[in-house]
Amino acid sequence: MAREHTLQKVVNILVYAFLITATVLSFSGKKNLADVFTSFETYFDPAPWVFTVWTVIYFLLGGFIIYQWFDQAHESALHGVGWHFVISAILNTLWFSLLLESEFTANNWWDRLFLHAPFSLWHGWSVFIAVVTSFVAFTDVEHQVDHDGNSTILPPDVLHIVLFYIGIVFLSLTAIFYVEYKGQKGDVTSAWVIAFGLWAIFVQQPFATTHWGALAAAIITTLWPAKPYVLKALGRSTGGENAPLLG
Known about the structure:
This protein is mostly helical. The chain has one domain. 68% of the residues lie in helices and 2% in strands. It has a two-stranded antiparallel ribbon with strand order 1-2. Strand 1 and strand 2 form a beta hairpin. The longest helix is centred in the middle third of the chain and has 30 residues. It comes from Absidia glauca. Keywords: Membrane, Transmembrane, Transmembrane helix. This is Tryptophan-rich sensory protein.
């Protein structure tokens, strides 16, 4: 193994350790990530359990850190992932799972689980959380306080409803794009993590104007990735290869 390759793998380990340590220190003795988001109420809030996605991502990235040392993962880990994991971990904005899938396809389930799945999850989750964060940064909820000092959230006004559906439509179209990318050789995992987020929004939002819209989007984004497999089961052509289940 070339010295550069060993260095790259060691740096991946250090960056992963940095991610875990930074996460622990950021919330040590403070609110967890879900509490941080739910403390800023918006009409786009997902249910707190959606943040378990981070646990899955970190677990699978830990698998990647171990799996990269195996011979069968050498090419994909070094030339597919390369230094992008390091850059992505530091910036958390450089997304590359679609490149990884098109250039270094998974040869087995270990590749799918520990090379493709964590980055697909990370990619889809980053899109979802970016939309949620935008609502936290730029919108708020209206409260009504009664004579006893009890505060009640008022239903969203027209502007907030319009913004809500812009966010929902954007996430739904993004999930569909993941599936349809390059003739259905797309990224089912990224699509389903967005669907998972939309289900969380459906559960959390109590108002009919947003609650049922989130349900419709959640159903669409859950079923759409299954379309290639349904068509295959029915014996119909999908117009291309099936989207991979993991990444």
